[in-house]
Amino acid sequence: MPKQGAIVAVLAAAGLAASFMFTLVVPIQAQLPELLHASRDDTAWVITATLVAAAVVTPIAGRLGDMYGKRRVVLILLLLMVAGSVIAALSTGIVSMIVGRALQGAVSGVIPLGISILRDVLHAKRVDAAVALISATLGVGGAIGLPISAVVTEYLNWHMLFWISGALGAIVFVLVLWIVPVSVLRSGGRFDFAGAAGLSIGLIGILLAVSRGNEWGWASPATLACGLGGVLVLLVWGWYELRLDSPLLDLRVAARPAVLLTNLASLAMGFALFASNVSYPQILELPVASGVGLGLSLVAASLIVMPSGLVMMVLSPFSGRLAQSVGPKLLLVLGSIALVLAYGFTLVFSTEVWHILVANLLVGVGIGFGYAAMPMLIMRSVPQSETGASNGINALFRSLGTSTASAVVGAVLAGFTVQVGGVAMPSAQGFQLAFVLGLIAAIVALVITLFIPSRRDPHEPRPSLPE
User: Fold this and answer.
1) For 320-326, what is the mean pLDDT?
2) N or C: which end of the chain has fewer CB within 10 A?
3) Reported pTM
4) Which domains does the chain have, with CATH numbers?
5) Could you tell me if 57 and 114 are in contact, meaning their C-beta atoms sit under 8 angstroms apart?
């Protein structure tokens, strides 16, 4: 077997590549209508397609990994990323770009699968630190990828963004095939195709309502039909899953207090993270004449945002050691507290570049600790044969939190504006309300975390991991 350090490094690279997909098009987002000769409503699907594909594919990929081999599914997802990158790179119209971005979004499933692989192949003493590192890639890839995307867009043709992501996916594919061992641990049963279809339809409905509510109108028939229809489908899906011997997801395991509360905390923490991702860059980039903006270029703003990702990476080994000594619950508590401090600070100080830098560093601490703790808490409470699906559901809850934050904070900033040179721009009042929402989400995450059981689930024996 390859050295365990090499396995961790390759899976971390896969995680970085996956999280990079979500900031890849940020530098060209405003120019997409002109670049793709489409309306702004249509080009919004370039973002929405990635989000929806990630949310739908991640839990399903986790279950497929548990049944047919986690490495095999990781390789398939990386191939989808490469295919999507090539399609997007060759795109001159909106339809092919949306297809390419949806395929790129599917690769997000490699992060929970990578975490599950670690549990299967690493020595028990190394699992927590490695899990913390892989979890950190959820934030690191986006934070580091943003300035890279900005620089590429500034000096090269925008299609190069997708050629670079395709090359990155191909390199990681080769490394995974070469370094990561095949996991022999498999769960039994047949794949639940009906359950996968039901989960997909329900999630797509809810995510469309959340992500497009601003454009469609929150009380519009389309938004209500998607949102309420999605909820109804998921209720029927849950009833159906409870009746199966081999469900897509064992909801009885998912309902265990440690798992359920961790997932709810993940949703709140995902909201708190993305509230900062939406608001901080806008403050940095808006013109000074707006009364709230700091007038930085996209490249300069992304360099202010980037250190939070580096903080996550630096904290990962410390997070693993801390989890081994005091347990992952404390990590999640510390992460939530850091997010509370970040938004509390921003509510008072947001008029200088260094204010946003300090707040974003606190966000990095919060997400670094919080995202490291979540999969550890999950894996202490589920059978080893269900870690892929369970980590996939946890990633789904984070995605629901981030997508909700994107829609809600976006609506707030669009609703509170000032006119600058005839152009509507977010006002100070809008940003303050966005920070309050982030603060509330962080407090909710903290309160939920305090109720998570600290001890292992007594129904599950301590897993026997490779020596």
Assistant:
1) 81
2) C
3) 0.84
4) 4-182+250-450 (1.20.1250.20), 194-249 (no CATH)
5) no
